[in-house]
Automatic annotation (TrEMBL):
Residues 1-193 form the Calcineurin-like phosphoesterase domain. GO terms for cellular component: cytoplasm. InterPro entries: Ap4A_hydrolase, Calcineurin-like_PHP_lpxH, Metallo-depent_PP-like, Pesterase_MJ0912. It comes from Paradevosia shaoguanensis. It comes from the Bacteria. Pfam families: Metallophos_2 (PF12850). One of its GO terms (molecular function) is phosphatase activity. Belongs to the metallophosphoesterase superfamily. YfcE family. PANTHER family: BLL5683 PROTEIN, METALLOPHOSPHOESTERASE. SUPFAM superfamilies: Metallo-dependent phosphatases (SSF56300). This is Metallophosphatase family protein.
Length: 240
């Protein structure tokens, strides 16, 4: 089995297009999507159309949930912008997304942790320029009761994989559409592969037209998105 894993597109259709073109060259059996697909000031409508055509196994992220469960006046400015761009069929798709799912009983999908789409698993969020892998006990505890060889998560936008002592692997593919404190604007996703009974992961890093994405964000009234989109050096503070 060979799977492409995407996450945290955040409405960046430019980055998603580059990633899907690369995936098409990787001979994968399927693509899975870990959520936070649309919330961003670039092109959420086109992003959703691309994902509907892709028809990947998808779980909801915290922003996906907020778009359909939170009153419009309670949403942040980026989520309000996103919701205003969507057609009813896009909202129906968001409403249909489960919190978790699995692929053939072997690969478990969630956005944050199995218990929460808003909790972090393999990394804490940035505080200034620092983030840390949580301690082994807390990472392992979040996997308790989920007996899958591979567990997938997103949410932090930081690509990382770990192996638990029992052999299970936890993988975060990073973010397709929004890089923060990476020192690179490039889109990120992962390829999972099973050979025999062993799973391995390859993290993919791709250049795309990030200048076009930044211009679109500025045109839509969100100039703070320029720096993370074109440099990848700054943090996420104040973006949403």
């Amino acid at each position: 089995m060979r799977l492409a894993v995407i996450s945290d597109i955040h409405g960046n259709s430019f980055a998603l297009e580059a990633v899907l073109e690369d995936i098409a060259r990787q001979s994968v059996d399927a693509t899975v999507n870990l959520g936070d697909a649309l919330s961003g000031p670039i092109d959420p409508r086109r992003t959703c159309d691309m994902l509907l055509e892709l028809n990947a196994a998808t779980v909801r992220g915290n922003h996906d949930r907020w778009l359909v469960e939170t009153g419009v006046f309670e949403l942040g400015p980026v989520d309000r912008f996103t919701l205003a761009q969507l057609e009813p069929r896009h909202v129906v798709w968001l409403e249909s997304l489960p919190a978790t799912r699995n692929v053939q009983g072997e690969v478990f999908l969630c956005h944050g942790t199995p218990a929460s789409d808003n909790d972090v698993w393999l990394d804490n969020f940035w505080s200034g320029r620092k983030t840390t892998l949580p301690d082994e006990a807390s990472v392992t505890a979040a996997a308790e009761g989920y007996d899958f060889p591979v567990l997938l998560c997103g949410h932090t936008h930081l690509a990382r994989s770990v192996r638990l002592r029992d052999g299970r692997m936890i993988v975060n593919p990073g973010s397709v559409g929004l890089q923060t404190v990476h020192g690179s604007p490039d889109a990120r996703y992962a390829i999972l592969e099973k050979n025999g009974d062993k799973w391995s992961v390859t993290q993919r890093v791709l250049g795309y037209d990030h200048e076009a994405a930044a211009r679109r964000a500025e045109e839509n009234g969100f100039p703070k998105w320029r720096e993370p989109l074109v440099t990848g050096w700054v943090g996420p503070e104040g973006l949403f």
